[in-house]
Amino acid sequence: MRILIALIVVVSAAWSAYWVVGSRMLRSAIDEGIARMEARGVSVETDDIRVTGFPNRFDTMIDAPRVAWPGGAGWSAPFLQVFALSYAPNRVIVAFPETQTLDTAAGAVEVGAGRARASATFSPEAGGMLDHANLVWEEATARWAGREAAAGRVLAATRVADGMEADVQNIGVTLDDVALPRDLLPGAGAEARLVDGVTLDALVHLDAAPTRLALETGEIAVERIEIDRLDLDWGGAALDAEGTLDVGPEGLLTGRLDVTLTGWDRALEIAEAAGLLAEGRLEMARQGLGALSAGTERADRVRVPLELRDGRVWLGPVPLGPAPRL
Q1: Alpha-carbon dihedral of residues 25, 28, 29, 35, nearest 10 degrees?
Q2: Which of 293, 319, 320 is nearest to 304 (CA)?
Q3: From the centroid of its chain, how far is CA 39?
Q4: Nearest Cα to Cα of residue 210 among 177, 170, 166, 251
Q5: Residue range 126-171, pLDDT digits in tens
Q6: Tens of pLDDT along 169-203?
Q7: CA dihedral 91, 97, 103, 107 (to 10 degrees)
């Protein structure tokens, strides 16, 4: 019995020592990460950072984090919590508050959620390569300049693509029941302001492997997006697309998408109401799509190539509007 008690005491003392050393190393890593961000011109402020969870967890509690990037972008929140089991510190769970604030060129955006959680698993080796991660955001809202958008649920996941190095990630994104601001489509009815669902499945090529260090400091960028599936159901129209887009300077996208539009006439009406069609292009686009769909099995369905070049989106020789930026 004495031997058993002694063994328990020794193991407990060793585990306590491990937790103390691990918590100090974690806090030191956080401080070093903040220093690296500040060296790149990123301002990071908090009211307090503490590591708790003894003896089985490393819980990082950050009070009032405030981050500002060069150029005016920023993020702030009442708190941020990061949890990890002490015996598996390479697996982390992030808990977000109900409200966060994004500072953008267009002004402040208040982001809300009924529940928001993310998790990530890194390799246990030095450097911590990202293996996979996911995000669940329920009852998401965004408010800015008197406008409000909402989504019933946002799901996102990423993992190393099969047979690829870590700098090629397979990502999936799903948005359900997206309600757009009323003034975004002033000439359309309520049906057009509700996007029933959006699904994306793509390979994302990064310019560097997504290690913990690269993710912390932002020293990583997207170079190419290979879209295997992009589905959108919106206001009585449906879009299915696939293709490859390159990311150029300042995030400008170039490339080609092969798009299948079902209910294309309705899709053009929505695009015009949202300002996605250049002025006077609606009738030209309608005539072109009508000609392409003539004689097909379904007159309301058409398959067309969209090209993103020279800062614009083109349907054949017809410019539809400005190309998006990442």
Answers
A1: -170
A2: 293
A3: 25
A4: 166
A5: 678 999 999 999 999 999 988 899 999 999 999 999 988 889 999 9
A6: 999 999 999 998 877 766 666 667 788 999 999 99
A7: 150
